[in-house]
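tool_call: predict_structure(chain=1)
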Amino acid sequence: MLTKRIIPCLDVKDGRVVKGVRFLDHRDAGDPVALAAFYDVEGADELVFYDITASADERGIMLNVVSRAAEQVFIPLTVGGGIRTVEDVRTMLKAGADKVSINTAAVENPRLIQEAAYAFGSQCVVLGLDARRVPDARPPRWEVRVRTGRGGGQPTALDAVEWAAKAAELGAGEIVVNSMDSDGARTGYDLALNRAVAEATPVPVVASGGAGNLCHLRQVLQEGKADAALAASIFHFGVYSIRQAKEHLARHGIPVRPV
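tool_result:
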C-alpha cells in the first residue's frame, strides 16, 4: 500500500518564509534554507517551496534561495512561483528541484504543461491549483484564481475540478489543491474540494489550505481522498512536529513512512 505523505510548505516572500491567512497578513516564519534543513532532519516526506509574489510581481523565482535550499535536503523538493516557460522549468530542475509547480502560466498557456511533461516527464510537472468556492453554488463549485500571491488573486471563470482533470490529461503528474477559503485559517481542509479533484483525476492529489490540528490531516487523507497533506502554520510555529503528525496518522491506520 502506498504511504501517505506529509509535506511542509515554505511560502517565501522577500527571502523569508511567511505565513498568512487567506493569502494576507503574513507573519515571518524564518529562513527558508534553515527551515528546509530542519524539516529534512525531522522526517518530512517532501518539501514545497513557493515564491508567492513572483507571478504577481511578474518576475522570476528567487533562484539563489532555491539552490541553497536544495543543497540542504535529501527529500523531494517542489518549487513554484513565476514559472512561465519550459526553460524556466529546466532552470529549476538544474538548480536542484525535483518537481516544478505551475499555476498562473498553466492557466494562461495550457500547452506549457504538455511541453514540460514531454521535455522532463510528468513526474516533474505539478499543477498548482488555487481555488475559491463559488458563493451559494449548489452543488458546490470552485473557481480557479491566478496571481494569488498578493491577496485574492484574479478570477478566471475556470471550474477548478474541470481544470484539474484537463491538466492531468495534458501531462501534469500531480496536483496541489489549495483552498483559498481555508488557507491559514486552521479550520480544516476543504474536504469536498479535495475529494472532487481526487475523483476526477488519475494523478496524486496534495491537499493544501486549512490544517489546524492533526485530525484535519487525517480527515483530508481519508475523507478528502488526498494522497498527501501539505501544511505550514502548524509546523512552522511549533504547534506540532512531523513525528507527532505521523504517529497520529499511523494510530488511525493510515500508512506513513516512519520518521
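agent: The chain has a mean pLDDT of 90. Proceeding to next step.
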